[in-house]
Amino acid sequence: FKQHIHDADGEFLQEASGTLAVKRPGMFYWHTLQPYEHVLVSDRITMWLYDVDLEQINRKPFSADLDKAPALLLSGELEEIQKHYQITVNHKDAQSGTLVEFTLTPLSDDGVFSTLTIVFGKPFIDSMSLVDSFGQITTIQFSDVILNPQVADSQFTFVPPAGVDVISDEP
After folding, report:
1. Which helix (H) or strand (E) is 82 found in, with range?
2. CA-to-CA distance for 135 and 35, rounded, in angstroms?
3. 133's torsion region: left (phi>0), alpha (psi -120 to 50) or beta?
4. How far is the C-alpha of 135 from the C-alpha of 6, rounded, in Å?
5. Which pairing describes strands 137-141 and 12-23: parallel, antiparallel, or unpaired?
6. How many angstroms separate the CA atoms of 138 and 112, rounded?
7. pLDDT (tens digit, 9 = 90+) per residue, 25-78?
8. Are 169 and 162 in contact (CB under 8 A)?
9. Beta strands 125-132 and 113-120, pairing class
10. Are 156 and 41 in contact (CB under 8 A)?
11. Among candidates 14, 19, 23, which has minimal Cα distance to 1?
């Protein structure tokens, strides 16, 4: 993936890139390589956020609260998503291919974003764009998508490296 972040006025703030793997339900691996290395891993029990440069890990119990972690939508279940969002669908014809655009608006006001748009081409996810409560726009463009690969559960197991500080929200 490549991720671009713009402020509310459209000014470019940052570009990031990395890899992503998801497995339903709730298993998620997001590895940002550039410009700062971060790893976000969920095994549906624990969420790990590892900031490699800071040598710090935040560990918290997994939550299916999709309003707080929109990237988990990719590994979620449709029924759970429908409980948290108003969903609108728009079909677009874009240069010889049909795109389907899903716009999700949180049903509660305490989420991290005001709208999230997920665009699918034939048959893969193309992009995801979210507008946060400050008007900042994050757009993620996916490439080299492999649909339904065999992904081992071990991909979603995180073991903190030795010597790294772990901050835990778990009892």
Report:
1. helix 78-84
2. 22
3. alpha
4. 9
5. unpaired
6. 12
7. 778 899 999 888 999 999 988 989 999 999 999 999 887 655 555 555 666 667
8. no
9. antiparallel
10. yes
11. 19
